[in-house]
Amino acid sequence: MNIIIVGCGNVGYAIARSLSAEKIYDVTVIDSDSDSFEHAVETTDAIFINGNGFSESTLIEAGARDAHLLISVTGSDETNILCCICAKHLGTKNTIARVSGTELGGMWKDLGIDAIINPELQTALEISRQLRYPTAANVDTLLGGRVELITYKVADAPGFFVGKSPSQFFGEYDADILIAAVERDGKAIVPNGDFIFQDGDLLRILGRPSSISNFFFILGKKPERIKDTMIIGGGRTTYWLADLLSRQAPKTRVKIIEKDKTRCESLAEKLSIKTSMCLVVHGDGANEETLLSEDIEQAGCVICLTDEDEHNVLISLYSQRAGIKKVITEVNYVNQKLVRELGLKNIVCPLSITTEFIMRYIKSLTGNEGNNERAMANEIYDGADGSIQAIEFKVTAKARCLGTPIKGLKLRNSLLIGCIIRDESIFIPAGDTSLQMGDTVIIISKESKIHHLDDILANRLPSIFSGSL
Amino acid sequence: MNYRLVLRLIGNILKIEAMLMAFPLAVSLLYKNSYRTIAAFAAPMLILLAAGFALGSAKPKSMQFRARDAFAAASLAWMAMSFFGALPFYFSGGFASFIDCIFESVSGFTSTGISILVYTENLPESILFWRSFAHWTGGIGVLVFMLAATPEANASGVNLLKAESTGLSPDKIVPKVRQSAKILCLIYLSMSAALFVMLIASGMPLFDCIINTASVAATGGLSNKDIGIGAYGNAAAEMVIALFMFLFGVNFTIYYYIVNKKIKQALADEELRVYVAIVIVSIAVIAIDISSIYGSVPSGLRYAIFQVTSMVSSTGMVTADFESWPALSRALLFIFMFTGACAGSTSGGAKMVRFIVLYKAAKAELRKIIHPGSEQPIALNGRKVSSDIISKASLFLFCYFFLFIVSVLLVSIEGADILTSSSAVIASLSNSGPGLNAVGAYKNYSKLSALSKSVLSFCMIAGRLEIIPVLILFKPSIWKRGGMD
Question: Which end of chain B has fewer surrounding CB within 10 Å, N or C?
Answer without folding.
Answer: C
